[in-house]
Amino acid sequence: MIDKNKNQFSTRKRLLSFVYAYHGILYLVRTQHNAWIHLGLTAIAIILGFLLSISQVEWIAIVLCIGIVFAAEAFNTSIEMICDARFPDYDKRAEIIKDTAAGAVLFVAMAAAITGCIIFLPKLFPLLT
User: Fold this and answer.
1) Does the pLDDT of residue 89 top 70, yes or no?
2) Backbone φ, ψ for residue 40 (5° rounding)
3) Which of 27, 47, 93, 101 lies in disulfide reach of 79, CB 3.0 to 4.6 Å?
4) What are 31-70's pLDDT values in tens digits?
5) What pTM was estimated for this model as a whole?
6) What CA dihedral angle connects 105, 110, 116 and 122, to 10 degrees?
């Protein structure tokens, strides 16, 4: 028998989904060393953005980069935990999965770093001379 109430919209369930997402973010920030690095670089980017009065379009690029990097780090953490649960002992497949997920984060982080350089370096060079 199909439960018709199972898929009904519930404001309470939607609000709880934000609580669960918040718990996931807290876990990521509390336990993942790379997330700490991303937080530090995020703080630097935001401070530089205000100090250098970057444009609205530049802010959009920075905010998107920050969001994408943290999302990639969250996906990577989730994938690593799934692998650890599925493969408690060493398994070459788990190694490849985890390395590939980490590589995805590296791709995104490099793109974010390049974006930051494109936005901030032209504004910083005149201040250094």
Assistant:
1) yes
2) -60, -45
3) 101
4) 999 999 999 999 999 999 999 999 999 999 999 999 999 9
5) 0.89
6) 180
101 CA to centre of own chain? 13
Model confidence pLDDT, tens digit, residues 111-120? 999 999 999 9
Residues annotated as catalytic are 73
Produce one character per residue of 33-71: b if its CB has 16 or more CB atoms within 10 Å, e if not.
ebbeebeebbeebeebbeeeebeeebeebbeebbebbbe
DSSP 8-state secondary structure symbol assigned to residue 88 = S
CA 94 – CA 83 distance, rounded (Å): 6
> Given pLDDT bands bounded at 50, 70 and 90, which one contains residue 7?
confident
Please, what CATH class does the domain formed by 56-119 belong to? mainly alpha
| 32 dihedral zone (left: phi>0; alpha: psi -120 to 50; beta) | beta
For residue 115, give the amino acid letter: T
CA distance 97 to 85: 13
Tell the residue number behind the tokens 């690593």, with chain if given.
Answer: 80
Asked whether the beta carbons of 61 and 89 are under 8 A apart, the reply is no
